[in-house]
Design brief:
41% helix; 18 strands; 5-stranded parallel sheet; 26 helices; 683 residues; elongated; alpha/beta; 13% strand
């Protein structure tokens, strides 16, 4: 459409969105009605005039993506999905914020049909949108050909003042401008209200100038409450700009139509019954009827689905022709769209013998990436300005950059994220959510903490994002500021997050095997910076169970369970204890999540009853009581110095652990009674 053409149903549709928002939040007696009511006009214009999707086939690959970054206003998104014809009924709207409903308090991917990414923590959604736009640009550059523009969708995002205040959005929008993502269109709900009241109390910067400095196109619609033509023209202009992302500043009145419009009172509280009645009367609706949708509104929005269905049919026809013209590319594209890994890719994983030279785990990770990259074009890597330290860039890789920079191309498979760990994680979530790409990102383990909000959403959203986290303990001269004493237990406690701390080459390969096969689980690979020997009993198969016996003894007096760089120290201690007549088993437990998923019989064969179990890790001991009777690790911050000296300072040496082990054995012998595995419990 070249110009805005008013429809007789425009006003009724907008009124329907506003009254439904009031009813949805009112019935739940919980939620945020203000943004949905204020953004009703732009929602109506965007979806009925521009948005390309097929609600009856919600995973059509070339659909436009929509992200509600101000996820607290999710009543708006649920209403739009219902009107569009997604699997969300009027009864689902009535169940807003209720147990097991399809309309939870914030949008959740994999839970509600039509939700692309999980949002709510502010700033995450717009950052995911940057990732979605990167994914489209990348796959389009690889697979599109003249006459076959197969991957050309737009990503639209709504965001509020809070999203713009959050630092993560600054990180990601800065990078989006550098990358010239012309397929990204963001609409800022400029209503001047946050939970604390008028934004004049805390947020007075010139956002337009900031985004212009980022390299964005910035447009301003001054009357977002009424100017449908202005909204239309701004979106149309944004779509015409191919070399810059666009921020549309949409000045609105929060809670438009309510008695409390324009105030913080409408931000996060339901309208009172008399206010809802007055709103409905004002727009010509019966105040006594709740959840009313006029037939003409359903009909107007049904056109979107009809348009999307036709576009999808055309796309599949084009894809069939593409198969004839480019059979190899078609085979690869359809495999990736379906989410399948290439057959036999895992055969390229390196396998090690105990006689192979000791290696640094981050180097072992680089060896894996070098080996699997030719077999896995799905990979799109990057690092937060630590490429040379994380060893995440395979030799010969092209960077993902706009071609006009001379630095790479959109076909490139390596992203220079800059010093933006949080933004990197949130972007990777968007890339993974798009489909067809497996993102991996790198930084020091300590600085994955900067990205904890994004990591948490990876796990909640069931997104396959792989973190290569080097410099993972006290081993190094950087000192306490860079030594992640508390980080492992934090990430191990997050549901559906695989935290791997491999001890040798086979364990690194096993970590990658799990991470790449786990389509709905993110992984963190915690990698040491010192050389580690290859273990006698290690194999990819053993390590893939999350825990296994490295050194066994019949009728043992002690088991030492360890991870990463401490497994070889445990083996050294076991040898010293054996010389004293104390039989000591050693267990490597590289991934708690995977080990916990094994059958109880197997887990008890690894950590069985009969002798005390001592855990050893150069990190906090928190959480280890689940697997051991006694724990040895750090109760304080680390120190700056060579790794051997730092380990000596904290007693993490073979000699001291042998002393500690003997003390444990003597204590339990004196104590007497049966020593039961900590895995044996009532709950």
């Amino acid at each position: 459409m070249s110009k805005f053409i008013p429809s007789a149903t425009d006003a009724t549709s907008i009124a329907t969105i506003r009254t439904l928002a009031a009813d949805v939040v009112g019935k739940a007696n919980s939620g945020h009605p203000g943004a949905p009511m204020g953004m009703a006009p732009v929602t109506h214009v965007l979806f009925t005039r521009f948005f390309n999707a097929n609600p009856r086939s919600s995973k059509w690959f070339n659909r436009d993506r929509f992200v509600l970054s101000n996820g607290h206003g999710c009543a708006l998104q649920y209403i739009a999905l219902h009107l569009l014809g997604y699997k969300l009924s009027l009864d689902d709207l009535k169940a807003f914020r209720q147990i097991d409903s399809l309309t939870p308090g914030h949008p959740e991917a994999h839970h509600t049909d039509g939700i692309e990414v999980t949002t709510g923590p502010l700033g995450q959604g717009i950052s995911n949108a940057v990732g979605l736009a990167i994914a489209q640009a990348h796959l389009g550059a690889i697979y599109n050909r003249e006459g076959f523009d197969l991957i050309n969708n737009y990503t639209y995002a709504f965001l509020g003042d809070g999203c713009l205040m959050e630092g993560v959005s600054s990180e990601t929008c800065s990078l989006a401008g550098h990358l010239q993502l012309g397929n990204l269109i963001a609409v800022w709900d400029d209503n001047h209200i946050s939970m604390d009241g008028d934004t004049a109390v805390s947020f007075t910067e010139n956002v337009e100038q900031r985004y212009l400095a980022y390299g964005w196109q910035v447009l301003h619609v001054r009357d977002g409450d009424h100017d449908l033509e202005g909204i239309y023209n701004a979106i149309a202009e944004a779509r015409r700009e191919k070399n810059k992302p666009t921020l549309i500043r949409l000045t609105t009145t929060i809670g438009y139509g309510s008695k409390q419009q324009g105030t913080q009172g409408i931000h996060g509280s339901p309208l009172k019954p008399d206010d809802i009645a007055a709103l409905k009367t004002k727009v010509g609706f019966n105040p006594d009827i709740s959840f009313h949708v006029p037939d003409e509104v359903y009909s107007a929005w049904a056109v979107v689905g009809e348009r999307g269905s036709a576009l999808e049919a055309q796309w599949h026809s084009l894809l069939a022709s593409y198969a004839n013209a480019y059979p190899n590319e078609h085979t690869e594209l359809t495999r990736r769209v379906a989410g399948r890994l290439p057959d036999g890719w895992e055969k390229s994983l390196p396998v090690y013998k105990s006689t192979d030279p000791a290696q640094v785990p981050r180097k072992l990770s680089e060896i894996v990436l070098t080996a699997i990259t030719p077999a896995l074009p799905d990979l799109l890597g990057g690092s937060a300005d630590l490429t040379g330290s994380n060893l995440t860039r395979v030799k010969g890789t092209v960077d993902f950059q706009p071609e006009n920079t001379g630095l790479g191309s959109y076909k490139g498979t390596y992203i220079r994220y800059g010093v933006r760990e949080h933004g990197m994680g949130a972007i990777a979530n968007g890339i993974a959510a798009y489909g067809g790409i497996i993102p991996f990102v790198g930084t020091f383990l300590n600085f994955v903490s900067y990205a904890a909000g994004a990591v948490r959403l990876s796990a909640l959203s069931r997104l396959r994002v792989i973190w290569i986290a080097t410099h993972d303990s006290i081993g190094g001269e950087d000192g306490p500021t860079h030594q992640p004493i508390e980080t492992a237990v934090h990430f191990r406690s997050i549901p559906n997050l695989a935290f791997w701390r491999p001890a040798d080459g086979n364990e690194v390969s096993a970590a990658y095997l799990f991470a790449l096969r786990s389509t709905e689980t993110p992984s963190i690979l915690s990698l040491s910076r010192q050389n580690l020997p290859n273990l006698e009993n290690s194999s990819i198969e053993n390590a893939s169970r999350g825990g296994y016996v490295v050194h066994d003894e019949e009728g043992e007096d002690l088991t030492i369970v360890a991870t990463g760089s401490e497994v070889s120290i445990a083996l050294e201690a076991a040898g010293m204890l054996s010389a004293q007549g104390i039989k000591t088993r050693v267990v490597s437990l590289p991934c708690w999540l995977v080990f916990d998923q094994q059958p109880q019989e197997y887990r008890l064969s690894v950590l069985h009853s009969g002798a005390p179990i001592l855990s050893l890790e150069a990190l906090s001991t928190a959480g280890w009581s689940k697997y051991s009777h006694e724990q040895y690790g750090l109760q304080t911050w680390g120190a700056s110095g060579s790794y051997k000296k730092v380990y000596e300072k904290f007693g993490i040496t073979g000699g001291n652990i042998a002393v500690v082990g003997k003390k444990v054995v003597d204590f339990y012998k004196t104590k007497g009674g049966e020593v039961v595995s900590p895995l044996v419990r009532a709950l």
